[in-house]
C-alpha cells in the first residue's frame, strides 16, 4: 500500500489552541465516541448512543488507519467550536436551534453548514431540532410520523401483497440482474407499490418458508417504487414543508420525486446492500442531480445494518448505469411491436461508464474484503464510515456518493423510508433508465 495518506475528511486544517487536548492532532479523524462502542458490552454500557461525552480518533501510521483510541476526559462541551468543524468534516450536522421542525428548521447558519457538508463530503445527517415553544427536542420526522408510516406499510402489506401470486426477491449482489430482469413485476413498480422478498425467506420452491406464512411482512426486503404516490402518511411526509424546504435550501430549484422505497432490513435475514451510487439507477442529463433522503424509522446501529458511506466519493465519476436493454426492448426501449425486440434477453443491464484503468474501485456491486463486523477493518481501510442514527433522523446524500450496508445480524429490524429526488429544471430523466412512468403520469413535483 502506498505510504501516502488516503484523502479523508479532517478538521479543515484548523489548528487547535495549545491549551486544548486536541492540539497536535489536527490531521486525525475525529468522530463522536459513541460510534465506536460496539467493541464490547462494557464499553456499550459506559458509552451509550446518547452519551456523546468523548471523542475518538483514527490515526494514519504510514500503512493503515489505526483503531480508534479514547481521549480521556475530553468533554464535548470543552471543544464546542471544534466539534462543529468535526461534524462538518464528517457530515454529522446537529440541527439544534430555537425553531420548529416544519416552520424554520434551517436558519441561515445551519443552512450554510448543511450545504458545506453536502458539497465537501456528499452527505449530511440531520439529527434533531428544538421546538422553541415547548423546548421539546424533535427528530426530522417526529414519532407520530414514524409510527404512522410503519403502521401504514403494515396495512399495505396485509391488504395488497399476496405471496402466492407474486413472490419476487430483491438482490444487490451477483444475482441482481437475474432477480430484477426476468419478469415485469419489478419493471411495472415505477408508479405502484410492489413487494420484494428476502431471498432467505423463501424455500427451494420459491414460496414463503413456514415461519413467515402468518407474518408475511417479516419476509420482505423492500417495497417500491411509488409509495410516495399513495395518499396518507407517506405522501404527507413527502409533500411536507420541511422536506420541500430542505431540498430548496440544498439548491434544488424545481425538485421532483421519481421514486420512493421502504426498506425493511429484517432481523437476522436482512441482506447486505452492496456498494453503489444511486445515480446509477436514477440517471439525469446533462448532469447528475439525484439526491437521496434516507429517513430512519428504527434506530440504525452497527448490529442491525446501519448505512456505511465513503465521504468525498461523490467527487468521483459515476461508475455505471442501470439501463433498459435495447436487445430486449428494441431501439425504442419500449414494447412498440417494431419487431426488433428479443424477449429472451435480460430486460435490464449495467452499462459501464468507466473502463478498468479509469476505475480504481474494486468493490463495485460488492462489499470490500475483510468487512466482517464488529471490526469491519476492510470498510475503514476502503474509506467507509458507519452512520448510526436514531428513528426520525434524516441522512441526505448525493447520488454519486458510494454507500452500502451490511446484513442485519441482530434481533431487531431496521426500517427506513427513502425518497430519491432530482432537479426538474434544465435536466432530463434519461429514457434509458429502467424506471419509466406510464405516458399519462409525471413525477411528483415538490
Automatic annotation (TrEMBL):
Swiss-Prot/TrEMBL cofactor(s): Fe cation
Molecular functions per Gene Ontology: dioxygenase activity; metal ion binding
Keywords of the record: Dioxygenase, Iron, Metal-binding, Oxidoreductase
Record-linked Pfam families: PhyH
Domain of life assignment: Eukaryota
InterPro entries: Phytyl_CoA_dOase-like (IPR008775)
Protein's recorded name: Phytanoyl-CoA dioxygenase family protein
Record organism: Skeletonema marinoi
Amino acid at each position: 500500500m502506498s505510504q501516502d495518506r488516503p484523502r479523508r475528511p479532517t478538521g479543515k486544517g484548523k489548528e487547535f489552541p495549545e491549551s486544548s487536548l486536541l492540539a497536535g492532532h489536527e490531521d486525525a479523524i475525529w468522530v463522536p465516541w459513541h460510534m465506536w462502542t460496539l467493541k464490547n458490552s462494557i464499553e456499550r454500557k459506559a458509552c451509550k448512543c446518547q452519551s456523546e461525552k468523548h471523542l475518538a480518533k483514527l490515526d494514519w501510521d504510514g500503512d493503515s488507519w489505526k483503531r480508534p483510541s479514547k481521549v480521556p476526559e475530553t468533554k464535548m462541551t470543552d471543544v464546542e467550536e471544534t466539534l462543529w468543524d468535526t461534524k462538518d468534516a464528517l457530515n454529522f450536522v446537529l440541527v439544534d436551534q430555537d425553531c420548529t421542525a416544519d416552520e424554520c428548521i434551517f436558519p441561515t447558519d445551519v443552512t450554510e453548514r448543511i450545504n458545506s457538508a453536502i458539497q465537501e463530503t456528499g452527505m449530511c445527517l440531520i439529527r434533531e431540532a428544538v421546538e422553541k415553544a415547548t423546548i421539546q427536542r424533535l427528530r426530522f420526522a417526529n414519532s407520530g410520523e414514524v409510527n404512522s408510516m410503519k403502521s401504514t406499510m403494515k396495512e399495505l402489506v396485509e391488504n395488497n401483497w399476496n405471496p402466492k401470486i407474486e413472490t419476487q426477491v430483491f438482490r444487490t449482489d451477483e444475482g441482481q440482474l437475474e432477480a430484477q430482469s426476468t419478469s415485469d413485476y419489478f419493471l411495472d413498480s415505477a408508479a405502484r407499490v410492489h413487494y420484494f422478498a428476502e431471498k432467505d425467506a423463501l424455500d427451494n420452491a420459491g414460496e414463503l418458508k413456514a415461519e413467515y406464512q402468518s407474518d408475511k411482512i417479516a419476509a420482505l426486503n423492500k417495497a417500491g417504487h411509488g409509495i410516495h404516490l399513495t395518499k396518507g402518511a407517506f405522501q404527507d411526509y413527502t409533500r411536507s414543508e420541511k422536506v420541500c424546504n430542505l431540498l430548496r435550501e440544498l439548491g434544488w430549484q424545481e425538485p421532483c420525486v421519481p421514486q420512493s422505497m421502504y426498506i425493511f432490513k429484517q432481523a437476522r435475514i436482512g441482506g447486505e446492500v452492496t456498494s453503489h451510487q444511486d445515480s446509477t439507477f436514477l440517471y439525469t442529463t446533462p448532469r447528475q442531480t439525484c439526491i437521496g433522503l434516507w429517513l430512519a424509522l428504527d434506530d440504525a446501529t452497527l448490529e442491525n445494518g446501519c448505512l456505511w458511506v465513503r465521504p468525498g466519493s461523490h467527487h468521483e465519476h459515476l461508475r455505471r448505469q442501470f439501463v433498459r436493454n435495447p436487445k430486449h426492448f428494441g431501439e425504442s426501449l419500449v414494447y412498440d411491436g417494431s419487431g426488433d425486440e428479443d424477449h429472451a434477453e435480460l430486460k435490464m443491464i449495467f452499462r459501464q461508464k468507466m473502463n478498468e484503468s479509469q476505475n480504481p474501485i474494486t468493490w463495485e456491486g460488492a462489499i470490500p474484503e475483510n468487512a466482517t463486523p464488529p471490526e469491519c477493518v476492510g470498510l475503514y481501510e476502503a474509506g467507509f464510515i458507519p452512520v448510526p442514527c436514531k428513528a426520525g433522523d434524516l441522512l441526505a446524500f448525493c447520488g454519486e456518493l458510494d454507500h452500502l450496508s451490511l446484513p442485519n445480524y441482530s434481533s431487531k429490524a431496521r426500517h427506513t423510508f427513502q425518497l430519491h429526488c432530482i432537479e426538474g429544471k434544465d435536466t432530463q430523466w434519461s429514457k434509458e433508465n429502467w424506471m419509466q412512468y406510464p405516458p399519462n403520469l409525471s413525477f411528483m413535483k415538490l
